[in-house]
Structure formats: structure tokens, C-alpha cells
Structure to design on (551 residues):
């Protein structure tokens, strides 16, 4: 206690009752100080890191070479417009695959949970499906299905196009992953909810549809969005079986210009979509956390 | 014990239930007459909750039979859904559906199971809510309600199916002492309406007040049953006396 001013009853009263100079509560004043300090620390450390990168990377011996072949502004502005249209194909594949994946994934998840003996084959199929599909790399599935299935047809039609079967392979792979997400959500719903629903006379399928799934879906939206962000990028894998989407088009431009900058341009396009999606996911996760845990602990 | 109630609404006949090696219900025989209120008392783990869950067919029984209006509902392979429509159940932890409003919680089963028109089910729900002082909560979600309100909604939800029997599984056990009273009032009201009820409870004072018959369960057996005055003042069996002595010692009677 040495050095501290003795607290008279007078002083204590003044401290407790008088509003501080700024007119803020003690708590708000403290928060404000903390916030200013954090902002300062964050800005300084960011400036230092960015400055280090700007300073030191150009000092690397091969920097001029790398800059010329990866970050050539002229090639960049030249290739970006040529990538818009192929990138639109990526977006279309994504927009068609994503809803299919959600539907198939949910069906597989529900099928894995059925307990009725008559539906055992369905459950078995769903289990084998998720195991086999997840056990093989996505790129390999796309190659096998994209090249293999069109070979079954003798005619040429829309359904013999590699892009269709590449999309099919994507739906298949992602459904298996998404099914696991849904299954976790379904199993996360407490047994007492099912008991309450069944005790009211609802059948097990009515219980699944009206009580379990709506709650499960709400909980799995954030992890589901994660899978969607990753799907958006994996659409580029379809390029290996032929369709000229952004990555393949960039590859063609690279081979024409002997410069890797078109790949960087393609990367920028992917970022334009995936960053907003990732931000949205984080926002949804934070909202879900707030909703389920009451107060957040920093 | 073997005396059979002539107008038994519900009859449990030598019901056995075990979880693994643990016998939870050991030849339980119990008759509940129409409009009768039976309280099940006993220590935690004595089988009260399991008994109620078995009657609602949420747990299959291993042996014995359960008769509802002279029909064996526990017969293996018997469709449980029609039985559950006639038997309402209220749980200790309310188990309301958190993604639905109070009104939807209540109308869900009448609409989906009894195929009532939605408007009619909603009108009925509003009437029930009004009767239990919850008329302004129809649009609320469960996380906006107190525990007592949630449990009253859960009771209304079960009542909306117009059940012939209500099973209440320690419905006040999760509640703040201040909120217990409002739920007990609802149960008193139901008794006034002539509802047949089986309650598992730790509220001995309430059991004494409300029940026609008190049933003491000990290690999965009905050790003693009788009118509340006799059970609480002059229990015959040493297990019952021992249990009540411990309840009194803990200040709960």
C-alpha cells in the first residue's frame, strides 16, 4: 500500500459518484483505452511485416526473374479479360453443383441414420458410398468418371460432354463430405428432442423432417459454407478432363506468352469469389456462436 | 398388490425392464383408474422415470404387459404411434422445440398427427394458453421464456393432443424454487379437469396434496402404495419409512 493515497470517505464517494471527465463510465473508459492500444499494436505490427516483405523479397537474387515471369503488369492486364468468360464457366459449374451437393448430401446423411431393417440396404449403400468416395482423391474421381463414363455412349450429346461428368464427379465427392457434416448435425440434436416429438405421436420420419433436420441444418450452415468455399476452388479440377475453364484458359495463355502471370490473374479471380464467401462463413459462425453460447469469452 | 382395479384405465402387469445387467423395473404391477392421480415417489434411480417412459413406449419393456383400456400396448410389434396420441408426456427438461414458436410447438402434433386444420389447432392452442396464463407468449420462442413458462408450454403442448392420460416426469425438478408453484398450479388445474395422471415427483408436499394414491418405488419394485395420508403418516414397509425419514431430514416435506 506504500505510495497509494489514503482513501478518505470523501475521496471514495467522489470516485464512485462523480462522472469522469469524458462523461463515460469507468468500464467504457477502460474499453476505449484498450481499443486504442490494440489498434496501435495491430497497425505497427502490420506495417513492420509488410515493410519487411517489400524490403526483403526484392533483395532475393532471383527476384527480377520471378517478377518478370509472374507479375508482369502488361501480361496481367492482357490476360484478365480473356479469363472472364472461362471463369464464368467455373461459376456456372459451381452454381449447378452446390445445390445438388446439399440435396444429395442430406439424403445420404438421412439414409445413414435409418434404423428400419427393411431399409438396411439403403443404409449399407450410404455407408459404403461415403467410405469409398472419400477414400479416393477428388482429382482421380474426376479423371475416372470424366473420361470413363462418356465412353459408354456411342452418340455425342450434351450428356456425353466431359464437363457434365466432371460436375457429376464433383457432386459425388462433395456429397460424401457434406453428408458427414449433416450427419454430425443430426447426431448433435439431443435425443430428448426426438423423445418429445415421438411422445406427441409423430412418426420417426415426421420427427426427422419437422424436428431434427431443421435444427441440424441451422447448426451445420457454417461448416457447410466451408465446404462450398472449397468446392468453388475445386471446380478448377474439372480442367484436367478438358473443359476450358479459368485455370485451363490461363494455362493456354501461359504457353502462348511464356509468362506465368495469367495464373496469377486466375488466382485473383478465384479470390474475388472465395474471400466474400469466407467472410460470410465467418460471420455466420460468429452469429451461431453468439446464439448458442450466450456471452462470448475473448 | 394383486387386487385388480375394476375400471383400470392403465394397468402395468409384471413389467420388467433392464439396461444391460441392471434391472430397472423388477416385476412392476400397477393399476391406474380413470381420473385417478397417482404419484410415484422414490430415490433417484428407483425406476420412476423409466416406468413413465415405458408406458409411453419410449422404452421397450423386456417382459410383462402394459394395458391401456384393456389393450396390451406393450406387445412387441405393436405400433406405438396411436398409443402416444392418447398418452401425453411431459419431461423434466421441458424438451420444447427451440426452432419453433410457442404456438407452433403446440399445434405441430394436432396438425401433423391428428390432421386438424391449422386454424382450428391454433384456436385451440390459444384457448389452452389463455387458460394457463400464457396468452401473450404464443409468438415467443423458447429461449425468451422462463423455465416455469417453458414447462407450462410443454404441458399445454401435451394437452393439445387431448390425451386420455398424462405422464409427468419430475416436471418441476429443473425449476427454480420460485417457479415451481406456477407449474404445480397447472397440474392442480388438470386434476380439476379430471385428467388421469401419473407423476414422478420429488415434491413430497405436493404429492401428498394432489394424489389419490402414492406409490413408493425402491430398486425397481413397487414396495408400497396407498392413499397419501397413510403413506406419509403411517408407512408400513421399512424401506418406505427409511426413504421418508431421509426426505424429512433434508427438509423436503
Amino acid at each position: 500500500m506504500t505510495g497509494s493515497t489514503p482513501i478518505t470517505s470523501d475521496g471514495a464517494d467522489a470516485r464512485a459518484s462523480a462522472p469522469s471527465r469524458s462523461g463515460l463510465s469507468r468500464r467504457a473508459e477502460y474499453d476505449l483505452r484498450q481499443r486504442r492500444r490494440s489498434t496501435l499494436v495491430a497497425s505497427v505490427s502490420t506495417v513492420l511485416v509488410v515493410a519487411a516483405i517489400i524490403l526483403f523479397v526484392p533483395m532475393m537474387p532471383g527476384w527480377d526473374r520471378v517478377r518478370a515471369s509472374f507479375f508482369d503488369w502488361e501480361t496481367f492486364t492482357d490476360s484478365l479479360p480473356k479469363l472472364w468468360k472461362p471463369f464464368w464457366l467455373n461459376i456456372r459449374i459451381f452454381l449447378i453443383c452446390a445445390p445438388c451437393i446439399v440435396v444429395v448430401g442430406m439424403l445420404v446423411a438421412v439414409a445413414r441414420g435409418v434404423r428400419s431393417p427393411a431399409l438396411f440396404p439403403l443404409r449399407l449403400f450410404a455407408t459404403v458410398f461415403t467410405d469409398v468416395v472419400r477414400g479416393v482423391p477428388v482429382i482421380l474421381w474426376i479423371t475416372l468418371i470424366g473420361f470413363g463414363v462418356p465412353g459408354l455412349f456411342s452418340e455425342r450429346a450434351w450428356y456425353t460432354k466431359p464437363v457434365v461428368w466432371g460436375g457429376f464427379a464433383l457432386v459425388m465427392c462433395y456429397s460424401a463430405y457434406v453428408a458427414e457434416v449433416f450427419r454430425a448435425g443430426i447426431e448433435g440434436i439431443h435425443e430428448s428432442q426426438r423423445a418429445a416429438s415421438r411422445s406427441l405421436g409423430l412418426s420417426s420420419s415426421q420427427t426427422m423432417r419437422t424436428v431434427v433436420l431443421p435444427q441440424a441444418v441451422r447448426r451445420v450452415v457454417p461448416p457447410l459454407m466451408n465446404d462450398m468455399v472449397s468446392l468453388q476452388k475445386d471446380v478448377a479440377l474439372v480442367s484436367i478432363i478438358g473443359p476450358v475453364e479459368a485455370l485451363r484458359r490461363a494455362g493456354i495463355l501461359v504457353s502462348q506468352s511464356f509468362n506465368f502471370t495469367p495464373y496469377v490473374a486466375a488466382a485473383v479471380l478465384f479470390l474475388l469469389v472465395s474471400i466474400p464467401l469466407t467472410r460470410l462463413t465467418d460471420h455466420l459462425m460468429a452469429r451461431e456462436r453468439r446464439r448458442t453460447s450466450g456471452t462470448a469469452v475473448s | 398388490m394383486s387386487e385388480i382395479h375394476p375400471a383400470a384405465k392403465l394397468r402395468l402387469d409384471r413389467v420388467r425392464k433392464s439396461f444391460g445387467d441392471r434391472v430397472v423395473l423388477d416385476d412392476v404391477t400397477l393399476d391406474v383408474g380413470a381420473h385417478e392421480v397417482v404419484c410415484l415417489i422414490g430415490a433417484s434411480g428407483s425406476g420412476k422415470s423409466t416406468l413413465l417412459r415405458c408406458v409411453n413406449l419410449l422404452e421397450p419393456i423386456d417382459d410383462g404387459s402394459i394395458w391401456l383400456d384393456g389393450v396390451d400396448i406393450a406387445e412387441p410389434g405393436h405400433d406405438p404411434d396411436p398409443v402416444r396420441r392418447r398418452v401425453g408426456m411431459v419431461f423434466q427438461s421441458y424438451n420444447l422445440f427451440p426452432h419453433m414458436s410457442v404456438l407452433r410447438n403446440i399445434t405441430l402434433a394436432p396438425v401433423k398427427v391428428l390432421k386438424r386444420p391449422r386454424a382450428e389447432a391454433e384456436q385451440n392452442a390459444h384457448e389452452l394458453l389463455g387458460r394457463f396464463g400464457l396468452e401473450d407468449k404464443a409468438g415467443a420462442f423458447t429461449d425468451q421464456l422462463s423455465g416455469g413458462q417453458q414447462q407450462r408450454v410443454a404441458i399445454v403442448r401435451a394437452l393439445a393432443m387431448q390425451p386420455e392420460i398424462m405422464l409427468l416426469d419430475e416436471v418441476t425438478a429443473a425449476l427454480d424454487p420460485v417457479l415451481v408453484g406456477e407449474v404445480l398450479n397447472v397440474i392442480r388445474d388438470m386434476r380439476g379437469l379430471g385428467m388421469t395422471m401419473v407423476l414422478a415427483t420429488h415434491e413430497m408436499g405436493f404429492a401428498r396434496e394432489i394424489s389419490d394414491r402414492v406409490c413408493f418405488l425402491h430398486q425397481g419394485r413397487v414396495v408400497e402404495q396407498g392413499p397419501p395420508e397413510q403413506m406419509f403418516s403411517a408407512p408400513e414397509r421399512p424401506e418406505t419409512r427409511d426413504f421418508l425419514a431421509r426426505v424429512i431430514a433434508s427438509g423436503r416435506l
Summary: Chain A has a mean pLDDT of 87.
